[in-house]
Structure formats: C-alpha cells, structure tokens
Amino acid sequence: MITGTLYEAGRMMVMQNKWEQKKSTGNINKKEKKELTPQERELQRFREQLEETKKGNEYSAIYSKIQSGQKLSSAEEDKLKAQDMKAYLDYKADQAEQEAFEEKLKNCKTKDEAQRLKTIKMQSNLSKIKNVENDPYISDAEKLRIARQIQGDTTATAKIFDEFTESVEYEKMPTEAELQQIRKMEKDAENAVMLSEAEEPSEAGEENVLVDIVNENIEKEGAIDSISDNNDRAENLVLDARLKEKEAINGDDAVMEQMQAIVSKLNKTKETGGTIDILA
Q1: pLDDT in tens, 230-269
Q2: Which residues are CB-neighbours of 133 under 8 A, at least 6 positions away?
Q3: Rg, the chain, Cα only
C-alpha cells in the first residue's frame, strides 16, 4: 500500500516536471512529433499540403483578377500586401494611374481627344511590356509577373474608356469634325449677316447704285457657294472621323493581341525551363 502511494507520487512529480517544461517553452497544447502515431503524422502532412494548396489557389485568384483588369477587395489587397509587397505597390500605382486617366477623360474637349488619350496610354503600355520582355537583367519569373500586371492595367484602361463612352459627358462632347463644322457655320452666318445689310446709295448716281447692287449679288452668290463647299468639307471630316474611330478600335485590339502573345511566350518559357515562384 505504501509502495503504491510512493509510485503514484513519483509519477505525479514526473508529470508536473513535464508540465512546467512545456509552460516555459510555450508548448503547452502542442504535442511533440515523437508522440504522434504514423496515422497522425500522415494526417498532419495532408492538412499542411491542403493548407498550402488553398493558400496558393487564393493568390492565383488574386493575380488572375489583376491580370484581367479587375479591382481587388480590401481583404485581397491585404493578402497581396502580406505576401508580395512589390506586386501590391505596382497594383496600387496602377489604380492611381487609372483614376487619373478617368479624370483626364472627363476634361477632354472632344471625342477625338479622349480617343487619343486612350491610344497613347495603351501604346505606352505596349512599349513597356516589350521592354520587359527584352530586358536581360530581369528573371523569367519577374518578367511574367510584370507583363501580367501591365496587361491588366491595359485591360482596365480599355474598360474605363468603354464605360466613359456610355456616359452623359462623352455624349455631349463633339468630335473635332463637328466642332470645325460648327465654327464654319458660325463664320458663314456672320458673313451672311454682313452681306445682307443694306448699303447707303452712292452719290455718284443710279449707275453706281446698279453697279453696287450687281457686286453685292455676286458677293452673296460667292458666300452661298462658300457655305456649300464648307458643308461638303465638314461632311467629309465627319466621315474621316468615323473611319479614324474604327481604325483606333482595331488598333486597340491589335495592342491587346500583342500583349497576350508576349505573356503566353513568357509563360511558355517559364514552363519549359524558367524558374518561377507560385505567385507568378
């Protein structure tokens, strides 16, 4: 009986010592690996792999959104910031540029000016992505990441412009051809008013009066012909503007196709030998 009591007391002391040791190391609730069974270790590895896969999928979804020109949620921004600060800063810089681009569109005076603004930005991005592709000092992984980011910014630019073309502000904007036509019409109207004003009879007599009338009629006929010519030129300008708009749309499509080709090429390089991390 005494022996049993001493045994229990000794066992309790051993357990107490283990407890104090775990408290001091912060491993109170953590099982030591050597205490896990083979089945428990296998389950632990499976859970860790599952967690890594889930984490990788989350970041892949974030990068896919950036590449497609979509905005990230606050939670997604926080995750990106924690995992990849450079990508996060690039994303925020693009967001600021897109907001500035939207404001510049609203300040345009004509539809043509707005179209040129978009074309310049898209062509600039195309030059950037080509420079990245040919830069020998950037790794394949970094090239692919930057290329996808530029592609996303370009896609967002196109979306912002398309949405702007459906706005009231854009609808009210004239084309440059229409603006020129309006100015010509205003000038012609002023000339017509000046010619229609009656001049005082000439003191030289009836002969001079008749000469003045003939000259005035000739001037009026010339003004009418001028107005007609101006209208014809204005109509041609409108047709040219429509043709330029169509060419601009085709040009934007060509830019996106070239970007996609570069991204696909970089991605293929990564798959066939380049080194790239999971976030790229």
Answers
A1: 555 555 555 555 555 555 566 888 999 999 999 999 888 8
A2: 143, 147, 262, 265, 266
A3: 38
